[in-house]
Amino acid sequence: MKQYKIGSIIKNHCVQCFHDEQKVVEIVPKEFSEKIVEKLWTECTNCGKTHSRLVQHI
User: Could you read off the pLDDT of 28-42 as tens digits, one per residue?
Assistant: First the structure.
């Protein structure tokens, strides 16, 4: 799995303006009974809209 760092730029489409770059603003680890995931909070570098997504540890 890719290691994400706060402030890094990732490729992910914004649902508001469809720009394809976002900046990681917060990483929140989540543990479930079977898997460990991280919730990434990202901000569009174009319009500033905040998004979240889950990424799985392998």
Answer: 988 888 888 899 999
